[in-house]
């Protein structure tokens, strides 16, 4: 029998939904607080959760990541008294089934519940475990699981994929993972660096040319699109593709045929497109810098990679993997790590993401020579300076706030408030508060929960939202 969990502080809402589930011959259980609800979800498995947003001990939206990480995670239906567009956006991004505003008609709730249960049943029948080949992919962060799920989803089709993320976040790696786990794995993976394509040679590079087609064309040349026949054509930094080529390439994507420069016959190539960019293509479309039809053609499936600074859990395993690979490359014994070395890496903001981390670890590895342990002294000076200055600035701000508080003044925010939205200001204050708790209490979670008044689940959800972690 299918089961429903209701997490809502309004007893009338709980009773109404429980009555509804009985009429539908479903089992149900309810909780009036977020903490009690999360305890229910931890003890039992449910098919659907009705989740309120404003609860006495926390925000239901903040608990969504923890709910989605549960084994056989339930479908979530948000039920809130106040419709918040930003909240709805966040909820949908976290994969909720529906977002209802109270008071919702019983008929609407029943229809939504039926659809969620039907979707869940069909997904279970159609779901077979997927074992991914993850060569080169090292991750321990929960934030990367949706990306891996998208890799599995994309690998099972021939649809176009758009991989987005900051420079160095691992876009090409994920494009290769999709290819390696697809039916095209035994065929070629051909990379096109769109940023390096010149206006004069772009069509020749992609589509090839015939001998004598232009000055210097002293032999026939096979283009990258033809080399990718049966495999994958990877358009790296597709946002840099010349506008003059975008219309032509759109036709090639649709027809899968093209004519080499100087040629008279069409050539067919069965390639699969995966594109990557660190630019906001949607904004480029609005600015007229990228074709709207090509954008939608490329974005059949999207894999959005989070920056390294928001998945601190990955820094340690990535560092270990890089160091082991470097030891093998330079024929040196494997090296250990001083605790401060890893702490400094985790405190850095990594504007260059995984690529920068790899470079920094290599520089530290080489600086250590034949020493057996990597220390913070081996790190590049720019990393040490930035982390140290950031730590001192936070310490000074914390000291100033304590002094003002002891003198009876409310701590003032130092950066210009009028230049930020209320949401941004709240998030900054929330993160600063959590940083203070972590700095003063370290790993003493019980003390932090007592002082903050947060439930354990809400506390961990806020840490994740602010890209913070309890120190090892």
Distance between the termini: 42 Å
Helix content: 40-55%
Taking pLDDT < 50 over at least 5 consecutive residues as the criterion, the unreliable ranges are 407-419
Shape: globular
What CATH first level of the largest domain would be assigned? Alpha Beta
What is the third-level CATH name, the topology of the largest domain?
A: Rossmann fold
Read across the widest sheet, the strand sequence of neighbours is 2-1-3-6-7
Whole-number tally of structural domains: 3
Write out key terms for the chains shown.
18 strands, Helicase, Ruva Protein, domain 3, 46% helix, 3 domains, five-stranded parallel beta sheet, 472 residues, Rossmann fold, 19 helices, 14% strand, alpha/beta
What does this structure look like?
- With 472 residues, the protein is of the alpha/beta class.
- The protein has three domains: 3-126, 3-Layer(aba) Sandwich (Rossmann fold), CATH 3.40.50; 142-306, Rossmann fold, CATH 3.40.50; 312-465, Orthogonal Bundle (Helicase, Ruva Protein, domain 3).
- Helix content is 46%, strand content 14%.
- The protein has 19 helices and 18 strands.
- It has helices at 11-23, 34-43, 64-68, 85-93, 106-126, 145-155, 171-180, 202-207, 224-227, 243-255, 281-286, 292-298, 315-329, 339-347, 353-367, 381-406, 422-441, 445-452, 456-465, and strands spanning 3-7, 27-31, 48-51, 54-55, 58-59, 75-80, 98-101, 161-164, 189-193, 208-209, 221-222, 232-236, 257-258, 267-268, 272-277, 301-304, 336-337, 373-374.
- The strands form six sheets. A five-stranded parallel beta sheet has the order 2-1-3-6-7, sandwiched between helices. The chain has a five-stranded parallel beta sheet with strand order 9-12-15-8-16. Strands 4-5 form a two-stranded antiparallel sheet.
- The radius of gyration is 27 Å and the shape is globular.
- The two termini are 42 Å apart.
- Mean pLDDT is 84; it is low at 407-419.
């Amino acid at each position: 029998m299918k089961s429903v969990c209701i997490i809502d502080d309004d007893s009338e809402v709980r009773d109404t939904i429980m009555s509804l589930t009985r009429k539908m011959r479903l089992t149900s259980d309810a909780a009036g607080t977020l903490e009690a609800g999360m305890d229910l979800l931890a003890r039992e498995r449910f098919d659907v959760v009705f989740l309120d947003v404003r609860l006495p001990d926390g925000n239901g939206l903040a608990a969504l990541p923890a709910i989605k990480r549960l084994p056989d995670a339930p479908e979530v239906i948000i039920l809130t008294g106040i419709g918040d567009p930003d909240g709805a956006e966040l909820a949908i991004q976290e994969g909720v089934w529906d977002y209802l505003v109270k008071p919702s008609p019983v008929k609407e709730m029943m229809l939504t519940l039926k659809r969620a249960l039907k979707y869940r049943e069909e997904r279970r029948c159609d779901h077979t475990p997927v074992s991914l080949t993850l060569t080169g992919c090292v991750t321990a962060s929960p934030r990367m699981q949706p990306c891996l799920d998208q890799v599995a989803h994309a690998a099972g089709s021939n649809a176009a994929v758009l991989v987005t993320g900051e420079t160095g976040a691992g876009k090409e790696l994920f494009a290769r993972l999709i290819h390696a786990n697809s039916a095209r794995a035994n065929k070629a993976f051909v990379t096109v660096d769109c940023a390096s394509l010149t206006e004069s040679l772009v069509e020749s590079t992609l589509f090839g040319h015939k001998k004598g087609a232009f000055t210097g064309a002293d032999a026939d040349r096979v283009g990258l699109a033809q080399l990718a026949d049966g495999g994958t054509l990877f358009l790296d930094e597709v946002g840099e593709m010349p506008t003059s080529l975008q219309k032509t390439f759109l036709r090639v994507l649709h027809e899968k045929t093209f004519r080499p420069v100087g040629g008279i016959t069409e050539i067919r190539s069965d390639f699969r497109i995966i594109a990557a960019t660190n630019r906001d293509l949607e904004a480029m479309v609005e600015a007229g810098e990228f074709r709207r039809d090509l954008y939608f053609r490329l974005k059949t499936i999207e894999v959005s990679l989070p920056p390294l600074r928001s998945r601190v859990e990955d820094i340690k395993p990535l560092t270990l993997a890089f160091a082991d690979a470097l030891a093998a490359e330079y024929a040196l014994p494997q090296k250990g790590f001083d605790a401060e070395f890893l702490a400094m890496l985790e405190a850095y903001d990594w504007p260059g993401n995984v690529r920068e981390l790899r470079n920094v670890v290599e520089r530290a590895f080489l600086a250590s020579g034949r020493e057996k342990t990597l220390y913070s002294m081996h790190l590049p000076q720019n990393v040490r300076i930035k982390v140290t200055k950031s730590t001192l600035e936070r310490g000074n701000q914390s000291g100033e706030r304590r002094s003002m508080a002891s003198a009876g003044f409310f701590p003032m925010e130092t950066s210009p408030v009028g230049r930020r939205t209320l949401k941004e200001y709240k998030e900054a204050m929330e993160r600063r508060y959590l940083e203070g708790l972590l700095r003063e209490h370290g790993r003493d979670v019980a003390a932090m929960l007592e002082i903050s008044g947060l439930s354990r689940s809400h506390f961990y959800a806020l840490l994740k939202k602010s890209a913070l972690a309890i120190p090892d």
